[in-house]
Amino acid sequence: MNVSGRPTRTIWPTADGTAVEIIDQTRLPHAFITVRLASLAAAAHAIQAMLVRGAPLIGATAAWGMWLALRTDASDAGLAHAHATLLVTRPTAVNLRWALDRVRAHVAPLAPPARAAAARALAVVLCDEDVALNRGIAAAGLPLIRALAARKPAGARVNLLTHCNAGWLCAVDVGTATAPIYAAHDAGIPIHVWVDETRPRNQGASLTAWELLNHGVPHTVIADNAGGHLMQHGEVDLVIVGTDRTTSTGDVCNKIGTYLKALAAHDNGVPFYVAAPSPSIDWTLRDGLREIPIEERTAREVSHLTGRLPDGSVATIALLPEGSPAANPAFDVTPARLVTGLITERGVCPASAAGLRTVFPAG
Asked: 137 in a domain, yes or no?
């Protein structure tokens, strides 16, 4: 996607071949800063501290982290240590485990001297695969938006609502939930995006809005609590969100607040779709509410907020009375019954075990 007109990915190998670079997403939207990752510890920190975030990008960064680790210690013990170190950084996003297991299975049969090069080659492949998957989601989701536009008066806009950031910043490129949105915009379909601010961390206000602004997509940032009101007044034609883990039965785990949007959409007859690339589907789980681990992040993400002051400087301020505790569950689970459909790289399917099998018969 474009940053100031320049095609950009979220993670890429350095020109000298000794490290990878990432966009530090904790600095957006006020500064575009890249960070060099040259070690296992640096990769693990980038994931845990959310310099990179979003299930697909977490997986891609973990794959590169395995390469960085194996350059230093490619023994069986080193391979196990790298896998274990990265696996605990973010417990909810299943792409993390998927990528780590794939790299481990690929390099484990090799002699240690060959492992680092093999891991690097696979990391490149996984990044390219992610882009291809998301382009597939764009192709599968575009007809949904096109159909909505066809039912409107000529020139009337299609109003979409998103939650959190499921854009190209959550992936290697293109994005998941935003992939059909970008495709519709590029196809000349009049669209407008309601962007949930998405407290805490404000990934909608800071990341999705920044993305859409750079790509020229009309959008409006709204408070998280405004979505239901807009649906009641017919101002939302479709809700589309991403997923950090979707069960084999269609339950969807995503950024906290997604469940509330699904409830509001259901009550108002608004279609609620989830963009779910195959690496985000956990075929080992059936009951999302009981089986998906929900990450509890630091209370500081709730109690403090970072923004730009009138003089242009960036500062972090406290929001709560001193001494008030805060809780911060990072995700919630939307039951499959509230999901209109899953948009996968192989097509749109019902959010159910049978529906998923229509596009992924082998699981």
From this structure: no
